[in-house]
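Table S5 (text form). Sequence records supplied for joint modeling of the two-component complex.
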Amino acid sequence: QKEVEQNSGPLSVPEGAIASLNCTYSDRVSQSFFWYRQYSGKSPELIMSIYSNGDKEDGRFTAQLNKASQYVSLLIRDSQPSDSATYLCAVIEPAGANSKLTFGKGITLSVRP
Amino acid sequence: DGGITQSPKYLFRKEGQNVTLSCEQNLNHDAMYWYRQDPGQGLRLIYYSQIVNDFQKGDIAEGYSVSREKKESFPLTVTSAQKNPTAFYLCASSLSSGSYNEQFFGPGTRLTVL
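The corresponding structure-token record, covering 227 residues in total, follows.
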């Protein structure tokens, strides 16, 4: 059973700080990695995707992937109260035309004004 | 205005009833998916479809059925055989079902069994 673990949470940071969200996965051959943001009562919204080792930056968000250590992280710089949400990590294993997403349970982030 | 729509937003079901949740997309995506989310849990895959007239079971397909008669539409029926159907149901779509394709979600349907 492929697993995606998001164990650290809930997370609380002050406004303006860097929030660091971590995710580990069990399948060494996993190929594609995604971060979704989900506000309470709403559906998930894709905020970052990353496919190769290293960092990928998009505005205040940076995704970091380390396939050797099987972890992917999301950094949120200059955190704002509007960033308060649950962040879901999702992973696809390379199965060609039948690739499916496996989700972690999410980390709840609270940004204190 | 492209996107994924789901209806209804809220649905109440009596014991023993079948109910159908609607999912429509105008993104011209080939692949569509149904997930279920329970409080404090990650999303679990119910069914997915890569092309019209074809679909596959996900991890928790028992008690559910789907059809894919049109590219734009992927309705989900929650049957009376589903023992614990109260949950948040999410429909998603992607350009195709390959490893690099991002999935985008509709707004969801919240189903409650009375």
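Note: Chain B is about 0% helix and 50% strand.
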